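discrete fold record:
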Amino acid sequence: MASFMEMKAKAEALDAKDLLGKFRERFVIPKGKVYLDGNSLGLPAKESIEGVLRVLEEWKTLNIDGWLEGRIPWFTLPEEMGRRMAPLVGALPHEVVMSGSTTSNLHSLVLTFYQPEGKRKKILADELNFPSDIYALASEIRLKGGDPATDLVLARSKDGSTLEEEELIALMDETVSVVLLPSVLYRSGQLLDMERLTRAAHEKGIFIGFDCAHSAGSVPHRLHDWDVDFAFWCSYKHLNGGPGSPAFLFLNERHFSRDPGLAGWFGYVKEKQFDMKIEFEHAKSAGGWQLGTPSVLSAATLEAALKIQEEAGIDRIREKSLQLTDFLIELVDGFLSDEPYAYSIGTPRDHGRRGGHLAIEHPTEAWRICCALKARGIVPDFRPPRVIRVAPVALYNSFTEVWEVARALKEIIERREFERFPKERSAVS
């Protein structure tokens, strides 16, 4: 077996033949840091900064006419961005639109499908989902006159980190109306088998949707071919759109005739939007599920980031992402799993069950190790109770950086650097 220092040479060799390495120079890399938190907030592309300045110039020179005369007319910007996003998630161009936030899209889509009737009164989710989704689902049940205590079914995890598809499917019975699950679990990085789950739900007459916040931009999807009913995701993680950048929603074209669960001005048929009629006539596309005026300035950063995604290609991004996480798993397994280190990988090893980030677990000191990493200029994040979450991003992280992270994890234990930090967490971590 190679020594730890020999693994550095392996990292350098991998970097030398990395076909995506050239994209790193197009991002603003924080000086003196190894940034591994792209699953929470991606780094800015240099073109994104230029994009904001361009839109500001349009606002300054075109004023109100920017809605129709901007380089990308602001009026049709949501549809244009949806068209460009569609290949990244395996959707038809008219099945995706830029709109609102992750949670507002959840509300709009779930309310479209959740029509409790007879026995079918329940929503199936999971206890490992991001809490915001659970809050939203509970409120939707209350809006329809139900009780979340009985009508919101949360699938349980055996190990506190992962879910089993067969157990999720077993919970899909005649009482379930809608299933909502994450594509990738935010703590562990587990990738669910969306195709299998969709097929099982439809066999039982159940609608199914996915929160793709932790997969869009890092994992290829085939939402249309899998016949997923709906999905939604943010753009500030692996898509590098920036803080508060607009979200996206997917609606299978089979459902365009449905009434949106929430209706708003920008969901009106585009050609008639300024007729100002009181009666709502929604666009027969994903665009019909828009609510208010799009955030044009925020979309300016996203447009540039999507351009880089298009150039790199989602399949190549996925290939390198898996190589990066494979390399980190190799380092943890080979050098950091035994005492005194006691690190382990909480993310499934199989490529088909792994998203773009890893959960490195430590039984007692995960929080303080995160603090020690940050003191060294390495930026992960912490998820309770024991997860050091790291996301080596294919577009701007290198294999050498991954090795440097492993070295830091090793030395933090050897030198007891974590002991310099309090055991109490900060409010945001």
Observations:
- The chain has a mean pLDDT of 95.
